Amino acid sequence: MTGTTMTGARSRAQAGGANRWVILVVLCVSLLFVALDATVLHVAIPSVTEDLRPGSVELLWIVDAYPLVCAALLILFGTLGDRVGRRRVLLLGYGIFGAASAVAALADSAPVLIAARALLGIGGAMIMPATLSILRVVFPDRRERATAIGIWTAVAAIGAATGPVLGGFLVQHFWWGSVFLVNIPLMALILPLGRWLLPESKGSSDGPWDVLGALMAAVGILAVVFGVKRLGAGAGLLDGRTLATLCLGAALLTLFVRRQRRRAHPLVDIRMFSRPAFATSVGCIIVAMLALVGLELIAVQYLQLVLGLSPLQTGLRMLPLTFAAMAAGATGSYTLRRLGPRRMVCTGFVLVAAAVLLLVPMGQTDWPALMIVSFVTLGFGLQTTLFAAYESMLSEAPPERAGGAAAIGETSYQLGAGMGIALLGSVMNAAYAPGLASVAGVPAADSAAASHSLGEAYDVASRLGGPAGHALRTAARDSFVHGVHVTLFVSAALLLLGAVAGLRLPRIMDCSVAGQARDAEPEPAAEPEPRPARRLSVKLPAPARPSDGAAVESGRTRH
What we know:
mainly alpha; Growth Hormone, Chain: A; 2 domains; 21 helices; globular
């Protein structure tokens, strides 16, 4: 049954010729919505705060509800798509995403907006793994699939990078709800288009679906991501709530892995991690996203608070990173064929490490040319790494496990983003705070408040005024630049460790028939093939001739 479903989807894709590239466009537009909504609200937070008056905890959940819920449910819906049909889950995700967008746009209170953001996360968790697993089925040839994945990863980078720009434009010309309202007409268009164009495919449907395992994975990932985000927000590792949340998540995920190993029909095939290429690819995705999100957060603060650029100027200064990522995605298939996964991942990590170290001379003086060169190298290197890692991970996974593999990849993406904010943010704070411990003329309480962030230090300095305020502002700016330099060195070290880990990947991109044998479906005509030869050998009387005749007939049958 599984083979029939997969073969049907594959024949539709192959028979359509260019039709599979139209399918790729639909999948990429789907992904674009999800990536945009992860960042489009950031610039609208001041307007949301002024309109809805949320508390500090409510504001945190307005921002985090979407990525937290999305990360927690990726494995659940990715594996559900393998069972009930990936297109079915994707179309349902479209509907939920559109309805949640309407609720969010018209929200009149913080709880309603939080609930709508959580519902958006459910829709996003349905859409993200489904797009990648359908792509895996529609493009069975590895060369074409590499090109498709390059376009897919480039769209993800474009969506995440252009979210703040689009959000800023909409908020400036309309109101904060318009950042959600724009999704509705696009979803109304893509829902019937996806139903008409996208092929249905399923994975293995043997055995019952592990509902308990899916819930364990969801709650475990939610707890880990939430704990990591608390660390990034400044909570200490020994903080009671943070430690309890991280321990709960780790315990549930450990039990989940043990449960999957024991089951005859697991929700996620843990054996995939025994393949060096698969496990290494997942680790590389985490490290690459850790560097990208952590460095972007620090770069935005540096550009606005140290160099004094406006939000629009900051967004424009970050555009070279986006364009470089697009170029890397567009040329990724060619680069992968020439270099192979191992050299491509290692080269990407080394490029990013070099770009990070190139920023170290930056101080309190703006060097636009140096920053542009660094951002171009950073964007190209990171997208090169992500492309090769995603392609290797997806090619290592069996087709019937495409949804689970895609969900693992997207979960790694989200975990890497959360860990980047937590880890590099903690390094930044550890290097920044000591410089404000004792500033001449500044009370200890004000110094403690200023040590939380550079923005708070500026607020305290403005309130103090006079020589004390000036001294605090200068000390805070110097400490922040010192923290940026320390964070850049730590990032470079992590990236070089990622390059070393990439040495476990295959040296070449195997596109041979033998290399893709696991993707091939059993042919229905394979079983009756020997029968004509046996009947022929019975009818022939001469002892020497049946052998020759059988060989000839068998050869004709095979060809």
